[in-house]
């Protein structure tokens, strides 16, 4: 056996269970995790582990976790398999998944090991790590595209990014001209990753990353708030969005399944927001709303 072995765990997993399993494998010590959706195949999760992990114990832990999910009523996942990889295979498999990606008209999201041809685009360098927001997920892509289009119309002096993850939206906003971005996440790993990515993109002076709950900020009067969270969070946070935003300010919400979008827009309507635009990327809707100017409010 080569001394430079890694383990690769592969398991087919229904979308509903993917986030839970991803967190679980990070906790088991994964070095990298990718969720793959290939045409004509069930989605699968691939996770890479160092040789110090005991392969059989890893497989058993994942099987047990999936059994627990089944008991909770989640659809069945496939059988986990763990195979050995040479170190170069692991690096190649990991890197092959993260390619530079053009987004909208002006952005290019790239991992740090790539030196892509920019063709005049603004490069956002993101280290694919534990935090959500490598730029590959359709909800991130939708938010980036709408954010870029909003900022093409007018660049606000500051904004709040709720659930910043890797910091990708906050960093994109800063690189597109916003001079002050407050980036918030309740996961310490995400905050650490957002700070590292902000440094990588040389926008530390513009992006302030803080650990905290999206519903517990003191801020108000923001001209723009972006939040790529899930529908349940948007419904819970609707009154807070109204508090954070200045009258007439814009709210960009991601992480909404297409079928939930009308319900989210209607719920936000009850808090003084009007829908301005929406876009769907692979089943995920991004909603752009405006908070009513004061004179329109009851
Ligand atoms: N903004 C990134 C993007 O667009 O790719 C990451 C979005 S990811 C879907 C959601 C992030 O929100 C995660 O990093 C999660 O830790 C964070 N989050 C979830 N609920 C939160 C809350 N109540 N307060 C703060 N952060 C939260």
Structure characterization notes:
This protein has 298 residues and is an alpha/beta fold. It has 2 domains: 6-95, Alpha-Beta Plaits (2-Layer Sandwich), CATH 3.30.70.120; 132-296, 3-Layer(aba) Sandwich (Rossmann fold), CATH 3.40.50. It is built from 8 helices and 14 strands. Strand 2 (32-36) and strand 3 form a beta hairpin. The protein starts with a strand and ends in a 7-residue tail after the last strand. Bound molecules: S-adenosylmethionine.
CATH-level-4 superfamily name of the largest domain: Vaccinia Virus protein VP39
Q: Structural class per helix/strand content? A: alpha/beta
Span from first to last CA?
Answer: 72 Å
Averaged pLDDT: 90
Query: What is the count of structural domains?
Result: 2
In helices, the fraction of residues equals: 25-40%
- In angstroms, what is the radius of gyration? 20 Å
State the CATH class of the largest domain: Alpha Beta
CATH architecture of the largest domain: 3-Layer(aba) Sandwich
